[in-house]
Design brief:
Layout (H helix, E strand, L loop, with lengths): L13 H21 L1 H23 L8 H18 L1 H18 L8 H27 L3 H26 L3 E3 L3 E5 H23 L3 H29 L14 H22 L4
Length: 276
């Protein structure tokens, strides 16, 4: 057992990680069940903090994307996704892209393509993908849809973490994320598929097989999202995106699996439990 305050075998300060996770989870559940617009506020704050972390991290490689249009456009994406749906989300992203390209014209030409491309990437990676959580929230039984989404991602992380610590022997992508193992992935699949079957039936009145399929899809997208963020950090030469969350790292170190999973969950839940 790791000494108090020190990282565990999987590289985390486990008590701090659990405490922060419980606090964040309580805030999310309370906002969804009591006042859904408050959840919009939580997501907007998290997304803007994530954009700021990317902006700071990218400067390690001399990349300085225009943060103001990314931030303003990002909040706009989340708001219109919640109130106006997927078409408005796509339009807001397009307008944000134009704003980034135009805004960067005010600075020297050197690095223009690099900085503008990084800005578009940041807008797509954080607020645009987060917008799919807003689409789920605004839909029929939105709170339940988002809770299923979060439960499956948490089960993916928890199942993979526990199995990897106890039985992880075969690295899945040693050059990208050495601590990820095939055994951990198997634990994620079993845990998320089981949780999906249960939550789909009890919370959304769907069928167990639909929940299991959703759970497996969540594992795939969350794992790829985690690996992609690990590759970004390796390219930038940093260990964590930040240190805002004790035991977790930065906001982006927690959003890495949530962001790419949001559109997957939105699509599958829309197909299996159509919005009335």
């Amino acid at each position: 057992m790791a000494p108090p305050g020190r990282p565990s075998r999987a590289g985390r300060n486990l008590p701090a990680a659990i405490g922060v996770g419980l606090l964040l989870g309580a805030a999310i559940v309370a906002s969804l069940l009591l006042f859904k617009p408050a959840f919009l506020g939580i997501v907007a704050v998290a997304a803007m903090l994530g954009v700021r972390e990317l902006w700071i991290a990218f400067q390690e490689r001399g990349i300085r994307f225009p943060i103001l249009p990314v931030a303003v456009g990002g909040v706009g994406m989340l708001v219109v996704a919640y109130f106006r749906g997927e078409g408005a989300l796509a339009a807001a992203f397009a307008l944000t892209t134009v704003a980034i390209i135009v805004w960067r014209l005010t600075e020297p030409a050197e690095g223009y393509l690099r900085d503008a491309s990084a800005g578009v990437f940041a807008a797509a990676y954080v607020p645009f993908l987060a917008g799919f959580a807003m689409l789920m929230t605004a839909a029929d039984h939105g709170a339940q849809r988002v809770l299923v989404f979060f439960i499956l991602v948490v089960c993916n992380d928890t199942g993979g973490y526990a199995t990897g610590v106890l039985a992880g022997r075969h690295p899945m992508a040693p050059s990208i994320s050495p601590k990820k193992s095939w055994e951990g992935l198997a634990g994620s699949v079993v845990t998320a598929a089981g949780a999906g079957a249960i939550t789909m039936v009890t919370m959304l009145h769907g069928q167990a097989w639909q929940g299991a399929v959703t759970g497996v899809a969540v594992v795939a997208s969350a794992t790829l999202g985690d690996l992609c963020e690990s590759m970004i950090k390796r390219d930038l030469g940093i260990k964590d995106m930040g240190n805002l969350l004790p035991g977790h790292g930065g906001i982006m170190d927690r959003l890495d699996s949530l962001l790419p999973t949001a559109p997957v969950a939105w699509l599958l839940l829309s197909l299996f439990v159509p919005v009335k």
